[in-house]
Every structure is written in C-alpha cells, then in structure tokens.
Amino acid sequence: MQFSRSSLVVAVFGVLGAAALVAAAPSGNTWLRGWPGYGYNAQHTAKSPVATQPLVTIHWQTPVDLVPPGFLGIHYGSPVITAKNNVLVTVKTQAGGSFRLDCRKGSDGTLLYSQTTDYILPQWGWIPSCGSTLTPSRQLATPAIGGTVLVRSDADSATA
C-alpha cells in the first residue's frame, strides 16, 4: 500500500514501547500509563518513563490524512496510546476538515473501532490538529462542534 509523501503516516514507534510504559509508569501518575495525549502530560514534557526500541522497523502504518493538501499548512496530532496498547489516531477524512478517530491494536494495527466527530475547523490560514486525550479514568475526550467535547466511557472498548 502506497501513501503520498504529503500524507503523514503513523509509523508506530510506541507500539512495542507502550507495553513497557504500562509496567514502568511512575506510581504517582498511574493514569499516565500509555501515551495519553499531545506532549504526554499537562506540562508537555514529551518524556516517556521508559526508553523506546530503536526506530529501525515499521511494524504497521496508517494514513492520518485521506485528502492531504498540496501545501502542508496542517498540524497533525499525536497518537494516543492506551495502557492496553491500543493506538488512537485522528484521521482527516475531507479536505475541509472532517475528522474521525481510529482505534487500532498496537501489536498489528488491526482496526478495533472508528468514532466520528462533528468538530469544525476555525477559519485560519492553517489547519490545527483535532487532538484527543485520555482522562485519568481511561475515558477518551475528543473535540466536537462549538467547543464541546465527546467523551467515550472506555477508550479501549469498541462498544463503549
């Protein structure tokens, strides 16, 4: 499967490292097991409590922009990785900025579920990310229309 150069592809560096995060997360921040959102934590330290494996192999990949623009004035969000090693990736589905969230198994990229959002992009000269995050109770919070937030009761469950 080929993807255009302008389509950002998630080469899941954390797939194997996420399993180590489950065991090695600091005890005071047990909800941070996995990679809960952009920058890892509220301070955006982007530092994992464990080292990742060398980035020499792509285990699986998935596009995050189905209609990439000619000019990449877009900011793609960080994947979210749950403590159960599921990878949540925001996918831009239309040029105007419709989005969905795909949950994939970290081990092999198998799609577990997709969730759409009615989030509308602001009027700017660039496209901001539509980034989701995990809550301390393993809920998934996703931006929606008019500043609202969609909350999925269990980020790992296809039926939540």
Task: Give the key terms.
160 residues, 3-stranded antiparallel β-sheet, 4-stranded antiparallel β-sheet, mainly beta, 7 strands, 7% helix, 21% strand, 1 helix
Give average pLDDT, whole number. Answer: 77
Amount of beta strand: 15-25%
Number of strands: 7
Which sequence of SSEs, written as H and E, runs from N to C?
A: HEEEEEEE
Coarse morphology: globular
Kindly state the percentage of residues in helix.
under 10%
What's the alpha carbon Rg, rounded to whole Å?
Answer: 15 Å
Number of helices: 1
Oligomer: single chain
State the low-pLDDT regions, or none.
1-27
| Terminus-to-terminus distance | 31 Å
Biggest sheet strand line-up: 1-2-3-4
Largest sheet geometry:
4 strands, antiparallel
Q: What structural class do helix, strand and pairing data support? A: mainly beta
How would you portray this structure in words?
- The structure is a single chain.
- The protein has 160 residues and is mainly β.
- It has one helix at residues 14-24, and strands at residues 80-81, 86-92, 99-105, 111-117, 133-134, 140-143, 149-152.
- A hairpin with a 5-residue loop joins β3 (99-105) and β4.
- It is globular, with a radius of gyration of 15 Å.
- The protein starts with 13 loop residues before the first helix and ends in an 8-residue tail after the last strand.
- Residues 1-27 have low confidence and may be disordered.
